[in-house]
Amino acid sequence: MKPYMTVVIVIGIVLLLASGMACSQKHKPLVPLALEGEVKSQATQLTEQGMQAYEARQFEAAKQYFEQAMAAAPESGQAHYNYALALKTLGNIDSARRHFMEAADLAPGDKIIWDSPALAPHGDPESTTTNQSRYVERPQGTVRPSLGNMPGAY
Fold it and tell me: Is 0.85 topped by the overall pTM?
């Protein structure tokens, strides 16, 4: 009986330590991303200014820089991501969602964008952005089966 109790105690301690480590890991803070690929130097410079403003918690200025960078590099997923991050921080969730999704579309292999906690609340970028998948068309006059009207019930 004694070896059994030792095994149970050891397993309990291991589980306790593992759960404590999992809970202590913090999410990385959401930070703007540097632009990748061939983009205009103007877009890179605007992004750097936006990153400095964002780090200084001057989110309105960061938004303006990121918006200009996005206009200079409209095909950059990172530019859309940065702009969306600033919009989200300022509380403009609907616009942020559109740009997070655009960022994911423009950067299909970018793990930072796709795995970002900022993108997660806005849904799966691979799914449709409309609610069409939630709509189920039923022929008129049909009802949802219940105990008394199930098929085969007399």
Answer: no
Q: CA 86 to CA 64: how far, in whole Å?
A: 9
* Alpha helix segments (H runs only) across 74-135: 77-89, 93-106, 111-114
* Radius of gyration of the chain, Cα coordinates, nearest whole angstrom: 25
- The answer to whether 85 touches 118, Cβ cutoff 8 Å, is yes
Q: What is the pLDDT along the chain (154 residues), one digit of tens a residue?
A: 577 778 778 787 877 766 665 554 445 557 777 777 677 788 889 999 999 999 999 999 999 999 999 999 899 889 999 999 999 999 998 899 899 889 889 888 888 888 877 777 665 555 444 433 333 344 444 455 555 555 554 4
| CA separation for the pair 44, 79 (Å, rounded) | 9
Question: How many other β-carbons are positioned within 10 Å of the β-carbon of residue 27?
Answer: 7
Retrieve residue 9's tokens: 């105690």
3-state secondary structure of 36: coil
Phi and psi at 57, nearest 5°, equal: 65, 30
